[in-house]
Write a structure and sequence with these properties.
Elements (H helix, E strand, L loop, with lengths): L1 H15 L13 H6 L3 E10 L5 E11 L9
Antiparallel strand pairs: 1-2
Length: 73
Amino acid sequence: MRTVKLLNITLMLLFSSCNAQTKKDEPKNQNELNSNLPKKNISVNKEFEKNGNLIKYDSTYSYYYSNIKITPT
C-alpha cells in the first residue's frame, strides 16, 4: 500500500511538471522584437598626455525604455 502511494505521488509530480515543450508567443515582426529593448547611448571620453599615454578614461552609459507603441502606417 505504501509503495502504491509513493508511486502515485511520483507520477503526479512527474506529469504536473511536464510543460517544457510548450512554445511561448514569439514576436511576429521586427518592430515587436525591438520594442522590448532599451535605447542605448554610450559616451566615452579619453584624455591623453603629450607622449600619447592615456591619463583619463570616462564612460557614460544611459538606457531609455519607452512604453509608447509605434505602429507602421
